[in-house]
Amino acid sequence: MFDSTDTRAEYTRRTVATPSRSPAITNIFGHNIRSDLLALYLAEALAVFLLAYGLMAWGSGEVAAIQHAELALLAAAVALAAGFAAGAAGLYQPSVMARARRAALAGAVAIGLLALGVVLAVKLFGPWNLGLSSNGLLLALILGAVGGIAVARLAHALASRRGFLARRLLLVRDPHTGRLGGQVTTSGSPLMTTELTLAEPSSAALIALLSPAWLRAHNLWAIVAPAGTDDAALRQHCRAAGLRLLTEDEFLECRLNRVACESLPQDWLATARSIRPGLAEAGFRRGFDLLVALTLLLFTLPVMLVTAALIALDGKGPIFYRQERSGLHRRGFQLYKFRSMVVDAEAGGTPRWATAGDPRVTRIGRWLRLTRIDELPQLLNVLRGDMSIVGPRPERPGFVEQLGGIIPHYHDRSSVKPGITGWAQVNYPYGASVEDARMKLAYDLYYVGRRSLFLDLLILVATVRVVLFQEGAR
Length: 474
What we know:
Layout: H1 8-13, E1 25-28, E2 31-34, H2 35-60, H3 65-89, H4 94-97, H5 100-125, H6 134-161, E3 167-173, E4 191-197, H7 203-209, H8 212-217, E5 220-225, H9 232-240, E6 244-247, H10 248-256, H11 279-314, E7 320-326, E8 332-338, H12 363-371, H13 378-384, E9 388-390, H14 397-404, E10 419-421, H15 423-427, H16 434-450, H17 453-468
Parallel strand pairs: 3-4, 3-5, 5-6, 9-10
Antiparallel strand pairs: 1-2, 7-8
């Protein structure tokens, strides 16, 4: 059953791993999160809470019990804010964590965001009768947050280096197709992999080879098997051993948070509960959209007024740009943006993708596109009900027809309202080709199938990172 170059003794010897029963993926409200990153977030929150509370209690001296409760509540709020600041700066991105300079820059941005939030909270919601001056309170909270993040990250780095966060994965390779292994190990995650090649992969062959005792002995987290072997019998066999059985597509979806569009069945949307919310959920989501849109309009109104004046001074042409886009169920609507290109940028009415250094972009338009300020008028589309705050980006009807005839399941992205920001926008740069559209669809359909307010919140936090670091802008 093994490949001719492998023996059971050799295979057993090289699959010995550090014992671990913790899963490598945690599913929260349908969204897959790497367990080591979730552990890092929780460790940071606890460290920030303890340090902030300890510094405030130490500086306050003798205070009443009720004041200690207020100290704990304030420290908990800062711990929560620290997580948002770190996420908004990209400090939970594996690609950022792996690069020292990028991580240092993200850390500085996170400290700045957190300090700004703490200052505003202390100044706006004071005075605080906690035995500390306003400046002393600020210092305790900021030092507690920075120190807590630093301590937690140091502990996480040491644990990763010693392999405590790594999980053992068994890859079953199909010798006829050669699949598995290469794509699976490119996710940049702390997984130790072992490969097994079967001459004739089948559910019966795997069950006969991999007894529950053998699986437990090798401390596996999951088995990634070729398509066609993942029947009910094998799944029950793995469940009895406390393991997950995944196909290659399922594993890539778990690790990369995108779907394999070509492998989706035609009726996959029938099982996607997220596109058929109940009345309460739909009402709450609409309320969320209205609240966020009105709040952003209020805070960005000065920026929008200055932007309108700059566009008017930059040359002739309208300040706003209206364009036909495809929305929910492919119904058309007029999308609003600040004009960032010259008038008649699409001579003849033929849709064109923007390119790097596009000569049609105006001087002020380049800055607007880099900062995403040109997107702010779309808040009016949210108020009108054409769009949501979060969802797949609305495309031109011409592009929708073209891409729908080339890419499988492309029209499925229209089963939810389009959004100002989305899962594809925070995970993949601006697309200017059919292949880019295919990759962005993989993220869009992941969102469509797993949409939740929790995932929307993660996307909003990640959008801050995209705007601050001008990721993927053209």
